[in-house]
What we know:
The chain is an all-alpha fold. The chain has helices at about 15-20, 30-35, 45-70, 75-85, 90-95, 95-120, 125-130, 140-160, 170-185, 205-220, 230-235, 240-250, 260-270, 290-300, 305-315, 320-325, 330-345, 350-365, 365-370, 395-410, 415-430, 440-470, 480-505, 510-520, 535-555, 560-570, 595-610, and strands at about 270, 290, 375-380, 390-395. It has a two-stranded parallel sheet. It has a two-stranded antiparallel ribbon with strand order 3-4. Mean pLDDT is about 80; it is low at about 135-145, about 190-210 and about 215-235.
Amino acid sequence: MGANSSSISELPENEYLQKLSGSEPISENDPFWNQLLSFSFTTPTNSADLKLLEEATISVCKSLVEKNPRTGNLGSLIKVFLSRTKELKISAECQNHLFIWQAHNALFIICCLLKVFISRMSEEELQLHFTYEEKAGPSSYGTECEDLIEELLCCLIQLIVEIPLFLPYTSRLVKTLLYNFIRQERSPPPGTHAFQQQTDGGGLLYGIASGVATGLWTVFTLGGVGSKASAQLEQCSPLASQSLLLLLVLANLTDAPDTPNPYRQAIMSFKNTQDNTAFSSSNPHAFQINFNSLYTALCEQQKSDQATLLLYMLLHQNSNVRTYVLARTDIENLVLPILEILYHVEERNSHHVYMALIILLILTEDDGFNRSIHEVILKNITWYAERVLTEISLGSLLILVVIRTIQYNMTRTRDKYLHTNCLAALANMSAQFRSLHQYAAQRIISLFSLLSKKHNKVLEQATQSLRGSLGSNDSPLPDYAQDLNVIEEVIRMMLEIINSCLTNSLHHNPNLVYALLYKRDLFEQFRTHPSFQDIMQNIDLVISFFSSRLEQAGAELSVERVLEIIKQGAVALPKDRLRKFPELKFKYVEEEQPEEFFIPYVWSLVYNSAVALYWNPRDIQLFTMDSG
């Protein structure tokens, strides 16, 4: 590095890097820094290039780790960067590109060095490297370390949010990161610099913003994990990607003993820019953001795990966002990408599927949502391959996708947690089912048929196992009782969902009654079963009532004629003959220690998706390499 262009292969022999990592202390006022920082180096934009860079400079980094206790050159470099940043705003206004360029280069070198330092030493050892200075005495070590680390942190945050005061940092940082995600600004081509000042308040300098976000990774978290870099996100907006990942990391930091996570508090409390109600004086983290822009960005970015996780956090934790989303008249723009995630369950990691499913569960807690989705008519859902859907309601499509997820889970993953949340979402919607598409109605009954067959199979296995055990005491019996109990719980839930629809909206769903009559034999075995007798009363009554009317109408009836008789019968059926059951309502509640799920998940996203970050996979301990 230095005044001339540098390539990765030349770095180990670079005279300026050798001097930085050498045995001689370099004063922060030495002209050397101007020479070191005046390099034209194509900053790596993906993890593969970062890996090559790290391998090429490892000897330099090792030398600095060894000699920094005597030279204090790391601290001098950081102080040079801090002094340059104090003039950055003036430089941007004067279009002093050289000064901005050198500040960018200094931050890049600091980031690379700290990343290696972090991977090779404990937090305590790293703190000591901030204290080493040629003239510093032992008594000043602790204060010197804390002051330099704090000043670096404050500087990095200030570069992003452009504010001089410390108290509003948390909320302003969260706001800025959210706006970076919302704007999805495209990056310049690799190897170019964009040192123009932004005019919309989105950060001091676009050219160093992504570097600042990367620096914040390193300093805020003292390490973490690295990246395989999503090519799609790199091509779109590295700044938006880094900002979102940093926001997720900060929001999922664990609470201090007496202080809740301030970043999570900021996410929980921000409001719409159109909201004129006063902020609570007891909430220092409150701010406003444009909800329409946020909603649009969330709808457009749901193909990524991190955008889905952000949507989950906002719906679950921020009541202002949840209320706004549920009031949107274009809710299909948000729901369709979520359904597409679930539809392609085979291609998604399990965490992404869970988040998408929980989002649906949260939305279905609202009766207004459950009504409105059946009023939204969709045309030609091209990604749904099992059947051509030229016209279907959003509600019917949601039912189809959730049922497909249940069936996939039954045959593949067999995850009880997934089953429970799928069924809970269907149950929440069941009283509001309206004008179900004939295919959706068929799939509801087909799922029950699949469960019935599974029940019979497990029951037969249990019977055979019991008979075989009478003549042998050699091996323990398989736990068929537990399997049977689980499958009966699921069957019970499906019967409750069907019953809820029949008792609350039978006259709105002739296709479901048709499907029920077509497969009426399925339900015969459960009429006298002690676990289902009560819930079967209404279903049995509906089957008997409509079967009688069809018999009176004669044989060889067309589908259209059967549906006509069902519609007429729905009006004639006395509602008081159907027994009332408690309304089916399920509410999502996080586990007692959600950090055990979310912290490894978030860091796996950083490892897999962060732009221009590389970490050795052999060093990863927080999560398994296949969890992302």
